[in-house]
Design a protein that fits this description.
The chain has helices at about 75-85, 100-105, 105-115, 125-135, 200-215, 220-230, 250-260, 275-290, 305-315, 330-345, 365-370, 390-410, and strands spanning about 25, 30, 35, 40-45, 45-50, 55, 60, 65-70, 95, 120, 140, 150, 155-160, 170-175, 180-185, 235-240, 265-270, 295-300, 320-325, 330, 350-355, 375-380, 380-385. By secondary structure, it is of the alpha/beta class. It folds into 2 domains: about 15-260, Metallo-beta-lactamase, Chain A; about 265-410, Rossmann fold (3-Layer(aba) Sandwich), CATH 3.40.50.360. The strands form 5 sheets. Strands 1-2-7-8-9-10-11 form a 7-stranded mixed β-sheet. Strands 17, 18, 19, 20, 21, 22 and 23 form a 7-stranded mixed β-sheet that branches. Strands 12-13-14-15-16 form a 5-stranded mixed β-sheet, covered by helices on one side. Helix 8 (about 275-290) links the parallel strand 17 (about 265-270) and strand 18. The chain binds MU-OXO-diiron.
């Protein structure tokens, strides 16, 4: 945890607040009209959501025109419509910052309710919306990077921020009120009754997990996107998942840390063990590394939340994958974890593999073949025949010592 985050233990959310979200004002003329999904536990049929999520949608009421920024997942359409009806407004523009359906999926239904509304977006997002939602060409207005739209006394500026996390993503800056609407960028999967961040520690953890799962593969592109918004006078950051930031520096400082090239003195060990041999190797390594001042994070893959594993990869310098041999190769759980490491592209410096076998196999060769995106130095693996014996422990100890030495050479320890 970084020093800039003040962890404050707050009272748990009152269960009596498990009510439908109502429209809520962020500033005069700016309303949050989205939905809280308290019960969703899986996103994209892949990502665990231990804390649910929100689909934030924002209504901007100018003196001449009204715009809706993003919609909600179609499962929550009723709540969005109820919130809009409560405000009793017409909608001139539906601004789509990103075509993924948790934000765009309700656009066709909103267009049916507000038939005069135009969908305003960038050309890439328009192409995706036409493909995914079959929205007809004549309904679109497209904007260039940096273009503005006047709603009368409120002006929206659209800034392309590609690959946070699809190629179509953009953010919207409300110039008179200094509010930046960011869709997935700076978001968190966190269902809370509070509109604004109240528990900074909780939000920080959820945002880091979200970054790890969604944004980390695009770390270098995020560096460029952060540069694009650097000179804006931002008072409020309003993402389309999770709480709204009244103190933008909380999430900006966190992102600067996560996207930097710096790693921490941490070793992550995703492991699986069928009969105890691989676990013995892992425990030996954890013991030596920890005694030498390295933070070690082992994840038993039969019981671990992959979101926690992804989060640990944000800061790790080293990953050691630990697996027994099944048939002729690594355990499928280890293959899955290795694949995740590869696609998430963490800023690792070192990787190694440990494990055990009974009569042979191609574990190292197969796992190395999965790690095509990872630019880290591969430290010689240690694969043991059966349960580790004295000579094997010497090799395991030597691997641990080599990792300790690498961390020292790199100023991590
Ligand atoms: Fe929250 Fe990429 O959608």
């Amino acid at each position: 945890m970084n020093g800039f985050v003040q962890c404050v233990e707050l009272e748990k959310t009152n269960l009596n607040l498990l009510i439908d979200m109502m429209s809520r004002m962020i500033k005069p003329g700016i309303y949050s009209v989205g939905a809280i999904d308290w019960d969703r536990r899986l996103f994209d049929e892949l990502i665990p959501l231990p804390d649910g999520t929100t689909y934030n949608s924002y209504l901007i009421q100018g003196s001449d025109k009204t715009a809706l920024i993003d919609t909600v997942d179609p499962t929550k359409l009723e709540e969005l419509v109820g919130n809009l009806q409560e405000l009793d407004v017409s909608i001139d523009y539906i601004i789509s910052q990103h075509a993924e359906q948790d934000h765009s999926g309700s656009i066709p239904m909103i267009m049916d309710i507000y038939p005069d509304a135009k969908v305003l977006t960038n050309p890439k997002c328009k192409e995706l919306l036409k493909d995914l939602l079959l929205i007809p060409e004549e309904k679109f207005i497209t904007v260039e990077d940096g273009e503005t739209l006047s709603l009368g006394d409120k002006t929206l500026k659209f800034i392309y921020t590609p690959w946070v996390h699809w190629p179509d993503t953009m953010v919207t800056f409300l110039e008179e009120d200094n509010v930046l609407f960011t869709c997935d960028f700076f978001g968190s999967h966190l269902a809370e009754s509070d509109l604004f961040v109240t528990d900074e520690c909780l939000t920080y953890r959820a945002a880091k997990r979200y970054y790890a799962e969604i944004m980390m593969p695009f770390r270098l592109l995020i560096q460029k996107n952060m540069e694009k918004i650097r000179d804006l006078q931002i008072e409020i950051v309003a993402p389309s998942h999770g709480p709204v930031y009244k103190k933008p520096e909380l999430i900006f400082e966190a992102y600067k840390d996560w996207i930097s090239d710096e790693t921490k003195n941490e070793v992550v060990i995703p492991y699986v063990s069928m009969h105890g041999s691989t676990k013995e190797i892992v425990y030996r390594m954890v013991d030596i590394l920890a005694k030498n001042g390295i933070t070690v994070k082992p994840f038993n893959l039969t019981a671990s939340d992959i979101g926690e594993l992804a989060t640990a990869l944000v800061d790790a310098s080293t990953v050691v994958i630990a697996t027994p041999t099944v048939l002729t190769g690594p355990h499928p759980s280890a293959v899955y974890a290795t694949y995740l490491v590869n696609v998430l592209r963490p800023k690792l410096k070192f990787v190694s593999i440990v494990g055990s076998y009974g009569w042979g196999g191609r574990t190292v060769e197969l796992l190395k073949g999965v790690l095509t995106n990872v630019r880290a130095e591969i430290i010689d693996p240690v694969i043991v025949k059966g349960f580790p014996k004295e000579d094997d422990f010497k090799k395991i100890d030597a691997l641990a010592e080599e990792i300790i030495g690498k961390h020292k050479e790199n100023g991590l320890l």
